[in-house]
């Protein structure tokens, strides 16, 4: 691989000096730049094009997650190693979603930090199986929350929308040119898919989803 070029980003100069001294003592690692703010970090990393960026999660004018996202957009081959003082599930999740290759605490032993830099520089991820499993579970949960109606057919979504308008089965049948019994069957099926017992619950769901879309300035297409 050759010498691994590293840029350090941390708002504490003492921390930067300590990490720089640790990494520079290795024959195969060279610290080519440092930064103490998010703004200067983005400029320096893009200008220097290192192999690895070691990023503090919390910065005075932003955070390392946003820096990671921005610099990886400009330099897709860059490996970002997030460094933080606190174990934070949200920060870990956001870091991985931003494209970070690893996430370590500042309490890490020096030799382990050196190993972490080498690991991400080689293109590997520094996430243990337990963390990876938790990440996948959270992604699945987000996907389910993103569209709670994913299991419904287009016809069922239309009927659900009309339930939200307060229409009876007969009125829905007239609107959609379906027999009332057919509508009743559709309603039973969609309630089962949504794990609901009453149509009032379905109507409340429609109201909530429309309100959420309205808050975000979006239009709902059922």
From TrEMBL:
InterPro entries: CheY-like_superfamily, NreC/VraR/RcsB-like_REC, Sig_transdc_resp-reg_C-effctor, Sig_transdc_resp-reg_receiver, Tscrpt_reg_LuxR_C, WalR-like. GO terms for molecular function: DNA binding. Residues 145-210 form the HTH luxR-type domain. Keywords: DNA-binding, Phosphoprotein, Transcription, Transcription regulation. Pfam families: GerE (PF00196), Response_reg (PF00072). Residues 5-121 form the Response regulatory domain. GO terms for biological process: phosphorelay signal transduction system; regulation of DNA-templated transcription. It comes from the Bacteria. The modification 4-aspartylphosphate is found at residue 56. PANTHER family: TRANSCRIPTIONAL REGULATORY PROTEIN NARL-RELATED, TWO-COMPONENT RESPONSE REGULATOR. This is DNA-binding response regulator. It comes from Planobispora takensis.
């Amino acid at each position: 691989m050759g010498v691994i070029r590293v840029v350090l980003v941390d708002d504490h100069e003492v921390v930067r000096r300590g990490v720089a001294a640790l990494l520079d003592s290795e024959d195969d690692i060279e610290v080519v730049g440092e930064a103490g703010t998010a703004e200067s970090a983005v400029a320096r990393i893009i200008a220097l094009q290192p192999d690895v960026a070691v990023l503090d999660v919390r910065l005075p004018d932003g955070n390392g997650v946003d820096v990671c996202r921005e610099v990886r957009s400009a330099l897709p081959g860059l490996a970002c190693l997030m460094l933080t003082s606190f174990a934070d599930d949200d920060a870990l999740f956001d870091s991985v979603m931003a494209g970070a290759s690893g996430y370590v605490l500042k309490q890490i032993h020096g030799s382990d930090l050196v190993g972490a830099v080498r690991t991400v520089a080689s293109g590997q991820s520094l996430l243990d199986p337990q963390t990876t499993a938790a990440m996948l579970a959270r992604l699945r949960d987000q996907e389910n929350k993103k569209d709670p109606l994913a299991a419904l057919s287009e016809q069922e979504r239309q009927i659900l929308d009309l339930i939200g308008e307060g229409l009876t089965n007969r009125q829905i049948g007239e609107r959609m040119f379906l027999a009332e019994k057919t509508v009743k069957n559709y309603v039973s099926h969609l309630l089962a898919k949504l794990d609901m017992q009453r149509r009032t619950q379905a109507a409340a769901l429609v109201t909530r989803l429309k309100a959420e879309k309205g808050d975000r300035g979006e239009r709902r297409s059922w």
